[in-house]
Amino acid sequence: MSRLNTNRLALAYGSRRIVEELNLSVPDGKITALVGSNGSGKSTILKAMARILSPLSGGVYLDGKEIHRQPTKEVAKQLAILPQNPTSPEGLTVQELVSFGRYPHQKGFGSLKAEDHRMVEWALEATGMYGFADRPVDQLSGGQRQRAWIAMALAQGTEVLLLDEPTTFLDMAHQIEVMMLLEKLNRDQRRTIIMVVHDLNHAARYAQHLVALKKGTVLYEGDPTEVMTPEMLRVVFGIDADVIPDPRTGTPMCLPYGLAADASTTESGNLPAGQENAERAPEPAYAAG
Asked: Gene Ontology cellular component (predicted)?
């Protein structure tokens, strides 16, 4: 079953098309990881799913309704987006940041109601950030800061979370910290999570559904044990690699040992001049707007 899907979706930056005729269904109650080389369309697709980027044609559907035709606040009550490298005003506390997640539920500029405060406290507890509520966000470690932003997304009270490279620029310990939090949210609350991930082993270990993209097209899709193969790694990433079971989890683990002789890993040719890093550019977070 899928509440969120695309139908013949076409996306572009300027006059250059990035995605064509994309039909993608996100399984409910699972973690889905979008993987692919730089410029393959991962973040572009995520932005369309979050209403940040409007389609050229086709559409993104949530519960059968085209989200780009629905009011922003109505969509934001159903799905939350955490963009890559979000930034907050200097001095903003964790509790203030998390409170922003209640914006879709406010009327005008009304103050927070009892239910809003309850959701903020719950989000802080769920992410292990309650003890940091009064700490300025800019004084947190990388992992703590990312958990604070995830808490803001949780405070929206949505069943669907979209995250664009949630572990970028984090050290190894903080990467695992964030991935284990997402795993817990999915396991305990059945949150549907869609995330763009660069680390293939993280994707295979923490996601139950893997989507491998190249040039805006889904080439492989399914359970990580079926998708993470030497063939996929050669075709999608242009690398030769062994795939072995993780000794602890049994999930597939990628061990690259060289570049594939017949594959190119450079995908930036899909993007117009000046847009080679468009998918990686940081942007402020907001609620599915």
From this structure: plasma membrane
Burial class (CB in 10 A: 0-12, 13-18, 19+), 255: exposed
Residues of the chain falling short of pLDDT 50: 264-289
Look-up of token digits 């450079």: 266
Among 264, 272, 225, smallest CA distance to 244 is for: 225
First to last CA, the chain: 25
Q: In angstroms, rounded to a whole number, what is the distance separating the alpha carbons of residues 43 and 34?
A: 9
Sheet architecture: strand order including 160-164: 79-82, 160-164, 192-196, 31-35, 209-214, 217-222
Residue holding tokens 């799905």? 79
pLDDT of res. 111? 83
Q: What is the pLDDT of residue 2?
A: 86
- What is the DSSP code (8-state) at residue 110? P
Annotate 46-63 with DSSP letters as a single string.
HHHHTTSS--SEEEEEET
Phi, psi for 4 (deg, rounded to 5): -115, 125
- Asked if 16 and 275 touch (Cβ cutoff 8 Å), the reply is yes
Cα separation values, 176 from 193, 218, 238, Å: 16, 27, 26
The pLDDT score that the predictor gives to residue 216 is: 95
The contacts of residue 94 (CB under 8 Å, 6+ apart) are 124, 129, 132, 133, 134, 135, 136, 137, 140, 148, 151
Q: Residue holding tokens 């699972």?
A: 30
- How far apart CA 214 and CA 36 sit, in angstroms, is 6
- How far apart CA 33 and CA 13 sit, in angstroms, is 23
- Gyration radius of the chain's alpha carbons: 19
- The class level of CATH for 4-279 reads alpha beta
